[in-house]
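Q: My labmate handed me this sequence with no annotations at all. I'd like to see what the chain might look like in three dimensions before we decide whether it's worth expressing. Could you predict it?
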Amino acid sequence: MFTTPERRSLALAAILAAAFFITTASLADTGSSEHDESHTSGDAHDEQDIVSLDESVMREFGIEIGVAGPGLVTRSVTLPAEIRPNEDRLAHIAPRFPGIAREVRKKVGDTVRAGETLAIIESSESLAPYPLKTLIDGIVIERHITRGEPVSQQRGRVFTVADLSTVWVDISIYQKHLDAVKLGQTVMLSAGHGKPGATGTISYISPIIDEDTRTATARIVLDNPDGRWRPGLFVTARVEVDHVRVPVAVPRSALEQIDDSTVIFVEAETGFVPRPVMTGREGGDLVEIEDGLVAGERYVRSGGFTLKSELAREELSGGHSH
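A: Here is what I predict for the chain of 322 residues:
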């Protein structure tokens, strides 16, 4: 039998235990409710990330769909280059005998034919005139003679004629790229300012390094039938140094930036979802996708900016379209 004080102590302990149980259960219910709300919020966020556009809008904004698959990624290095006359098709013309220039018939920029007379020289020895002729077809690119001027072999050439139907493209190779650039590699040339480019193949690499620039020279012999590749023009050369086939590759136009993530819009059941991806090797127009997109999935290969803009609009309005 319990005494009266003992009964009071037991009753108090029972009350405290009941209060503790109720408080613990209440906290558990609250945590569960918060967890459910968080899960529901996450589902809502995923739902809001879906962008749906009808086919007419997609056509209007040039949105193209592709199927993820393998691709050949071409790694390249971009180097400065300069157009120069093809020295194998260049003529330096000097007088055979010393004398006085009686006539000067050609100027810089004139087109000449092999055997055509450029100037008439009166010999200082015989006083007889003789013609100074070009040995090749081409364009006069230098002239160092005027009428009445004394000329001689010691003074050097008086005309330079260049056949510009082909030109040299001399590419400066920095030391860090010397092992990557090789004979036979394909080079894409760009003159900028919206001008059409050209493609060539490396046919020569200098065996020594220039002491002043600390670069080697790679050379392309480029066809120039319309004369648009003028000597002295600076161009950009993109040398293809490596080719790698990868499991999944997409065009650069498929990549978009949202916040700090690179994403691709992937086709879902009711629209397109921006999915973060991990990129790998890049080359030309293709980028390797190492994670985030698998072969066979349909994705937006171009026009993703429209979807990105629509997603931002929906987030600002607090809604989404289907």
